[in-house]
Design a protein that fits this description.
- The structure holds 2 protein chains of 2 kinds.
- By secondary structure, chain A is mainly α.
- Chain A contains 6 helices and 4 strands, in the order H-H-E-H-E-E-H-E-H-H.
- Chain A has helices at residues 5-11, 89-98, 139-145, 168-171, 180-183, 211-216; strands at residues 135-136, 155-158, 164-167, 177-178.
- The longest helix of chain A has 10 residues, at 89-98.
- Chain A is globular, with a radius of gyration of 18 Å.
- Chain B is mostly loops.
- Chain B is built from 4 helices and 2 strands.
- Chain B has helices at residues 81-90, 157-161, 169-172, 196-199, and strands spanning 127-128, 166-167.
- Classes of the chains: A mainly alpha, B little secondary structure.
Chain lengths: 219, 204
């Protein structure tokens, strides 16, 4: 059975056209859990709920999933010029599954699940081995650090179909911060490709020629 | 023919037997078999709320905590007039049976069905549906195939889901259970299965 065909099989009765390999939609993407037994055929519910959402992380968008209680080992490097802090905002939401301390099916809040993220998709709580996130990236940092573009000046096109053009500050940063969502589009809206069996990681910009890195890094 | 159908699994298509059929409630004596009187009275013109068709229920005077998020592109104001009608029961500050000349008897909505006055944990209402500010929203001119769409209707998203261009409680919920899909909870206008109700507007 080809990956994606199961999604097509049940979805066929619900939607006329659900293609398994399209960028631009969460359907059939890595974050479409509707074909798993625990998701009860809902797409949005593992993360969002229209009423009685959690307020534990301030301004989290209608959040329905249990949060991680982990304290993270932060990124450090001798050349680091940014001020690091514990993950916040959107990154904290991603880590509520991706640090591997909370079951994927731990929702709505208060429910404890028993399905765990795969080792391949788990970041763990030691963030020193990952690109830093949850830090302010502005023109001043670009000057201090050198070899960084000013995010208020540098433009970028994210996604394939659909795509969106804008300043790095506007289409990649969250409140001026680099967060997980700076590089990854959780909903697979503005990505290069979405197929589950491809290792594109829901990236907003292609890694061909390390293009994604060079959006910010001026080397 | 029985006027009141069995309460537990109401058929879509009628308020009779639905969650808003109070003729079968435990305070039904004050309703006296009238399906409409809790909310409407034909002798009322205009009523307390300009949005309410012959509105007959006491209004809430609550000031609501509104929604905000770091992903949200608009500022949620106080709920619009239509949503305020829903909240006149569903915020839990006004008795269900406070209608007509009655101040109510302290018969309040259940905890399960009350969303309170803190709306920060609910999907925003009273917001303009602005694709210019959120490019992942479906074009409001798009024809949508929700159950309430009939061939003779204007089935555009803006016609079916928006009220003066705004999102309000009735954007998702059909208070009268007229056009809800079969076996759906929450009087939704489209099924939650496959998150279809979300996908009507959110192109993600």
């Amino acid at each position: 059975v080809k990956p994606g065909t199961a999604a097509l099989a049940w979805a066929a009765g619900v939607w006329l056209a659900v293609l398994p390999a399209m960028a631009g939609t969460i359907f059939g993407s890595q974050h479409d859990f509707s074909i798993t037994p625990w998701a009860k055929r809902e797409i949005c519910q593992p993360c969002h709920v229209p009423h009685r959402a959690q307020g534990e992380v301030s301004a989290a968008p209608l959040w329905n999933h249990a949060f991680s209680r982990a304290t993270y080992t932060l990124y450090f490097s001798s050349s680091l010029k940014a001020t690091m802090q514990q993950p916040m905002g959107g990154s904290k939401l991603c880590l509520s599954c991706h640090d591997g301390t909370v079951a994927i099916d731990s929702y709505p809040a208060g429910n404890t699940g028993n399905t765990w993220i795969s080792a391949a998709n788990k970041l763990g709580t030691d963030l020193n081995v990952h690109h830093p996130s949850s830090f302010l990236y502005d023109g001043a940092l670009a000057v201090r650090k050198g070899a960084l573009f000013d995010p208020a000046v540098q433009q970028v096109t994210i996604g394939a179909v659909p795509s969106r053009q804008g300043y790095v500050k506007d289409v990649m940063l969250v409140g001026g911060n680099v967060e997980c969502s700076s590089c990854h589009d959780v909903h697979n809206t503005y990505t290069q490709s979405s197929a589950k069996w491809q290792t594109t990681k829901l990236l907003k910009v292609s890694m061909n020629g390390s293009a994604l890195c060079f959006v910010c890094h001026d080397f | 023919v029985a006027m009141v159908s069995v309460a537990c699994h109401a058929a879509a298509g009628s308020i009779r037997g639905s969650a808003h059929d109070f003729t079968i409630s435990n305070w039904a004596n004050s309703v006296n078999g009238d399906f409409c009187v809790t909310c409407h009275d034909q002798s009322v013109s205009g009523g307390e709320s300009a949005a309410g068709a012959q509105w007959n229920h006491a209004s809430s005077v609550a000031n609501y905590v509104t929604y905000s998020s770091f992903a949200h592109k608009d500022t949620a104001a106080q709920p619009g007039a239509l949503s305020k009608l829903c909240l006149s029961c569903h915020d839990g500050t006004v008795a269900l049976d406070a209608f007509g000349d009655s101040m109510g008897t302290g018969q309040f909505i259940s905890t399960a069905n009350s969303i309170g006055t803190n709306l920060s944990n609910s999907h925003p209402v009273g917001i303009y549906y602005d694709t210019g500010r959120d490019s992942t929203l479906v074009d409001p001119r798009t024809s949508i195939g929700i159950p309430g769409c009939k061939p003779s209707n204007d089935c555009s998203l803006s016609s079916m889901m928006l009220y003066n261009g705004q999102l309000e409680c009735p954007s998702c919920h059909d208070v009268h259970n007229k056009n809800t899909p079969p076996n759906e909870r929450g009087l939704l206008k489209e099924s939650a299965t496959g998150s279809k109700i979300c996908k009507v507007c959110h192109s993600k």
